[in-house]
Amino acid sequence: MLAKKADIEMAWIAFVPLVNLILYFWIIKESPLLLLLILIPIVNIVFIFYWSVRLFNAFGLSGFLVIPSLFPPVYILILLYMAFSSDVQYQF
Questions:
Q1: Is residue 9 helix, strand or coil?
Q2: Could you say which DSSP state residue 16 is in?
Q3: Rounded to an integer, what is the distance from CA 87 to the centroid of its chain?
Q4: Is the pTM of this model over 0.70?
């Protein structure tokens, strides 16, 4: 649903494991080659937070939502809110 809000045509790749990360980078307008940074210890943690802030900002939400999203159930609820709420719009 987030890909549909972002007007990405190939939204079906959200269901393909690991390839769905490319979709994440398309939504935040970053190069998918940055996925290689996940392989570097410590750097991966910093960039995962940065990319999460970019995702929240892309949909008009505060980057401070990264803090409660450290708990996986809360992160899932935030993503569901972003996907199904009519108040949240893609802004990039």
A1: coil
A2: S
A3: 18
A4: yes
